[in-house]
């Protein structure tokens, strides 16, 4: 199971299904996962900490007083019980007094006293760009026409919001019966640790949310573990966009071209539910931003499901996730097509459905990273659609790391940022827990990933060199030698080029790990110029280059320039067991059954083949567990039996006429 780890906010949520019947069993499991937590008191909630940690903890079910913003902008107070909270999102700083004054000035724009309206209008015009987001939020609280008109006038003359203020919340978001803006005040949330209350304030936590009951859908609220529909104007600045007009290298795309892997460098790949077809571009003009080519299934044209899968740029085998995704869709009807989001574990996060006829923008945001997006047509209403103008945040992988802390992800889903981790006696000792919680000890078998801090090192380009994949599933990286002459230099005490029989494949650092399908019958090499696989023979790994033959013609290539070359079939999925990821790109499959020990801030000891590895924190990026695949064949879902729908003549004529116009 993969999880995004990033500083600064909640990026992942897990779904826990339970019922009252099995409540004690789940509490027992939690007791094994996080020893010391009370198992017989409090209500379980997902707590999101300021550093990005997310833990399931029992919360004292007490009554708290909150202030709520009324729809017309007034303030009211209410007593609520913690158990009635479906979700809570807290502002980083307690600015309620200032924000309440701002809201009061906005309300004065609709005062019956003209002088009062004018004073408020003049005062608000004096605010700087950092208040723009606050005024946009206040605009949502008013239905008064004059107030809205004056606010829009102020915003039209105000410069764009600065990066620090963009996206900031004006009030806390409190969801009991429905989401409402308000203020929690100085009230603390008390969690139970070892049966004793532990006080958490807004300085410690960003919010909490209730876990999903058995059989229920994933949460569809904003806030922690939230999912909601978005308009195009709500997308944050800096998003990636893809209009499907040209390839990433600038070459034109022709109608009918297979584009499933064309945008791998942009961080996404496409696929269709129709195995005999592919995703291609077509000439139907979607009324979006670019209004040029659009993307759909190739045959039957505009039908079937399309899936967008996010990956690390250039690395199809490394999953990634985004927090925002949207696109324009055409030829739809209300309820005719759904855009469904899934997390990195394959669980549905939420969906948005078409609401209009013709052309529409579908957008979504989720605090749980979106790994896959499926477009699912309703064949009873409308089976045709085409897509254009993707917009999404930068795909991030579960390998992303905190600047200063160790990120630990447990099998149960908890994600913990702590000051240090010590591995010994089959346990992981977590030191310096978030929110000043006591240190914890968990079984190493309950850990799925440990990411070491990145040390706030500036991101640099990948070193020049070559990746070498071995038969045990390990991938080693060899740096280009300092003088650019001689054999690649490997960090670990093994030169894989000396044992060619142990090598599965190679590729230079300027290329990605591209798999050949179908199964290999002989060695193959990817020709980037002709964009196809070439059969090769008599492959020889020399010190400085690879040599091979194509027919009777000999050829060679320097290692760092080499495109993907496969000598044997690589594993389609990561090899089960503990993996050690090094900072320069190595992915080492550790020897199974051997202990992994050490204080990670100092030195890690692990066994690989016949070597006892001793690596420091500057060498290691992460330690993660890959579970074995489930036994038995996965159940195959049978396609729905339905007669192919025929387009109405009027619809066909309309489509033909649009094609002729183009």
Brief descriptors of the model:
7-stranded antiparallel β-sheet, 6 helices, globular, 8-stranded antiparallel β-sheet, mainly beta, 662 residues, disordered N terminus, disordered C terminus
Summarize the structure.
By secondary structure, this protein is mostly beta strands.
Could you walk me through the main structural features you see in this protein, from its secondary elements to its overall organization?
The chain is mostly beta strands and 662 residues long. It has six helices and 45 strands. Strands 2-1-10-5-6-7-3-4 form an eight-stranded antiparallel sheet, with no helix packed on it. Helix 2 (96-108) crosses helix 4. The relative contact order is 0.10. Mean pLDDT is 80; it is low at 1-40, 212-225 and 632-662.
Topology:
Layout: H1 23-33, E1 43-49, E2 54-59, E3 63-69, E4 75-81, E5 87-89, H2 96-108, H3 114-125, H4 132-139, H5 145-157, E6 172-175, E7 179-183, E8 189-193, E9 196-200, E10 205-210, E11 227-229, E12 240-242, E13 268-272, E14 279-282, E15 294-297, E16 306-312, E17 315-319, E18 322-332, E19 337-342, E20 348-353, E21 358-370, E22 372-377, E23 386-392, E24 406-410, E25 415-418, E26 420-424, E27 427-431, E28 440-443, E29 447-451, E30 465-470, E31 475-479, E32 489-490, E33 503-508, E34 524-527, E35 532-535, E36 537-541, E37 545-550, E38 553-558, E39 565-566, E40 577-582, E41 587-589, E42 598-599, E43 604-608, E44 611-615, E45 620-626, H6 649-661
Antiparallel strand pairs: 1-2, 1-10, 3-4, 3-7, 5-6, 5-10, 6-7, 8-9, 11-21, 12-23, 13-16, 14-15, 16-17, 16-22, 18-21, 18-23, 19-20, 19-22, 24-25, 24-29, 26-27, 26-42, 27-28, 29-45, 30-31, 30-33, 31-32, 33-39, 34-35, 34-39, 36-37, 37-38, 40-41, 40-45, 43-44
Helix pairs in contact: 2-3, 2-4, 4-5
């Amino acid at each position: 199971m993969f999880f995004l780890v990033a500083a600064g906010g909640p990026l992942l949520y897990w779904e826990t299904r339970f019922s009252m019947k099995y409540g004690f069993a789940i509490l027992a499991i939690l007791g094994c996962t996080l020893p010391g937590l009370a198992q017989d008191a409090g209500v379980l909630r997902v707590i999101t900490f300021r550093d990005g940690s997310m833990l399931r903890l029992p919360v004292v079910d007490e009554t708290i007083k909150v202030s709520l913003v009324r729809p017309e902008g007034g303030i009211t107070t209410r007593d609520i019980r913690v158990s009635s909270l479906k979700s809570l999102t807290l502002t980083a700083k307690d600015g309620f007094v200032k924000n309440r004054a701002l809201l009061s000035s906005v309300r004065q724009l609709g005062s019956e006293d003209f002088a009062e309206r004018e004073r408020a209008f003049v005062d608000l015009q004096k605010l700087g760009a950092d208040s723009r987001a606050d005024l946009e939020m206040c605009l949502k609280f008013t239905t008064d026409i004059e107030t809205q008109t004056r606010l829009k006038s102020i915003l039209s003359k105000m410069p764009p919001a600065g990066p620090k203020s963009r996206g900031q919340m004006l009030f806390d978001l409190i969801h009991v019966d429905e989401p409402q803006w308000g203020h929690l005040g100085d009230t603390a949330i008390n969690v139970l640790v070892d049966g004793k209350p532990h006080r958490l304030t807004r300085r410690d936590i960003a919010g909490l949310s209730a876990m999903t009951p058995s059989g229920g859908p994933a949460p569809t609220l904003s806030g922690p573990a939230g999912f909601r529909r978005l308009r195009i104007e709500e997308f944050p600045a800096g998003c990636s966009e893809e209009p499907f007009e040209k390839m990433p290298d600038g070459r034109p795309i022709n109608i009918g071209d297979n584009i499933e892997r064309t945008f791998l460098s942009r961080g996404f790949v496409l696929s269709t539910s129709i195995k005999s077809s592919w995703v291609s571009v077509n000439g139907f003009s979607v009324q979006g931003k670019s209004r040029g080519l659009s993307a759909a299934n190739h045959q039957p044209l505009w039908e079937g499901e399309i899936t967008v899968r996010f990956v690390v740029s250039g690395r199809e085998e490394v999953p990634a996730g985004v927090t925002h995704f949207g696109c324009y869709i055409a030829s739809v009807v209300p309820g005719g097509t759904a855009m469904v989001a899934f997390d990195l574990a394959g669980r549905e996060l939420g969906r948005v459905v078409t609401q209009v006829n013709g052309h529409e923008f579908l957008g979504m945001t989720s605090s749980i990273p979106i790994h896959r997006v499926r477009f699912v047509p309703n064949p009873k209403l409308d089976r045709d659609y085409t897509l254009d103008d993707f917009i999404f945040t930068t795909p991030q992988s579960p390998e992303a790391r905190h600047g200063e802390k160790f990120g630990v992800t447990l099998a149960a889903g908890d994600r913990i940022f702590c000051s240090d981790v010590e591995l010994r006696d089959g346990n992981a000792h977590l030191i310096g827990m978030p929110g000043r919680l006591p240190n914890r000890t968990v079984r190493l078998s309950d850990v799925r990933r440990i990411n070491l801090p990145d040390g706030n090192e500036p991101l640099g380009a990948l070193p020049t060199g070559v990746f070498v994949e071995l038969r045990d599933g390990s991938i080693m990286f060899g740096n280009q030698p300092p003088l650019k002459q001689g054999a690649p230099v490997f960090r670990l005490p093994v030169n894989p080029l000396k044992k060619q029989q142990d090598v599965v494949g190679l590729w230079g650092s300027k290329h990605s790990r591209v798999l050949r399908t179908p199964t290999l019958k002989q060695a193959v090499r990817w020709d980037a110029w002709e964009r196809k696989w070439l059969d090769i023979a008599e492959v020889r790994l020399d010190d400085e280059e690879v040599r091979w033959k194509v027919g009777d013609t000999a050829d060679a290539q320097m290692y760092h320039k080499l495109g993907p070359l496969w000598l044997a079939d690589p594993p389609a999925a990561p090899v089960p067991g503990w993996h050690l990821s090094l900072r320069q790109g190595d992915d080492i499959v550790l020897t199974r059954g051997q202990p992994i020990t050490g204080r990670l801030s100092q030195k890690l000891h692990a066994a690989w083949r016949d070597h006892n590895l001793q690596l420091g924190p500057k060498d290691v990026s992460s330690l993660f567990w890959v579970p074995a695949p489930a036994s038995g064949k996965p159940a195959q879902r049978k396609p729905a039996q339905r007669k192919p729908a025929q387009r109405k003549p009027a619809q066909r004529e309309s489509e033909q006429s649009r094609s002729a116009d183009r």
